[in-house]
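hey
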């Protein structure tokens, strides 16, 4: 039944993409930041899977030889980030065509604060440098919280924290046109909220990195280094 539901949503998402071009143009940045129609399909898949950001990367997949070239480029970025920002966890997603960078909120912010801490500014500055060295990507910044406190408060806090990270990266010279932010509040935990350790893991900021149109075009042409 779950597979039938998933397939139905994919078909529905595809139909919306191909029959609502005007709407797609107005909402592309919020859904997949203009990567392509496939990202909207991925967003539908991601909604069922519980993570719309990763769904966008799945939907924007290129695959084949071009996808392999994008993956090779992402591998280079992954190494740069790991060397420059040891405070972050860097993971490959979608066969390496995207990256997910996770910052513990305790590193970035004081408790109940959305102001980037002085202690974390060096890590984010180094991260911004890697982004500027790899300009042909889009970033989706997502804030998450644990389930302590009111749902609405946590939703707002997660949005403010994601926006603070975006603002800091913008201040460091990362182009605003390649970034979007959103908050997921308590709704996408990665660990058990009944334990202190689990709640700490759930308080996080994730940054999804995916190829932009230029990188995809170069990969399809076989000219991507």
């Amino acid at each position: 039944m779950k597979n039938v539901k998933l397939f139905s949503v994919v078909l529905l998402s595809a139909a919306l993409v191909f029959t609502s071009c005007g709407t797609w143009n107005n909402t592309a940045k919020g859904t997949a930041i203009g990567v392509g129609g496939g990202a909207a399909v991925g967003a539908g898949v991601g909604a069922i899977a519980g993570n719309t950001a990763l769904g966008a990367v799945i939907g924007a997949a290129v695959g084949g030889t071009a996808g392999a070239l994008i993956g090779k480029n992402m591998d280079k970025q992954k190494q740069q980030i790991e060397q420059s920002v040891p405070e972050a966890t860097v993971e490959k997603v979608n066969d390496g065509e995207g990256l997910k960078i996770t910052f513990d909120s305790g590193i970035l912010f004081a408790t109940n604060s959305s102001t980037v801490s002085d202690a974390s500014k060096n890590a984010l500055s180094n991260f911004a440098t890697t982004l500027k060295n790899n300009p042909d990507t889009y970033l989706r910044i997502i804030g998450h919280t644990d389930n302590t406190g009111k749902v609405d408060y946590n939703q707002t806090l997660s949005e403010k924290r994601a926006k603070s990270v975006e603002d800091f990266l913008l201040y460091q010279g990362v182009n605003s046109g390649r970034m979007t932010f959103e908050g997921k509040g308590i709704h996408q935990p990665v660990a058990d909220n009944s334990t202190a350790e689990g709640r700490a893991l759930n308080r996080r900021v994730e940054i999804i990195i995916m190829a932009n149109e230029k990188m995809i075009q170069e990969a399809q042409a076989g000219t991507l280094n």
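The chain has ten helices and five strands. The CA atoms of residues 37 and 96 lie 20 Å apart.
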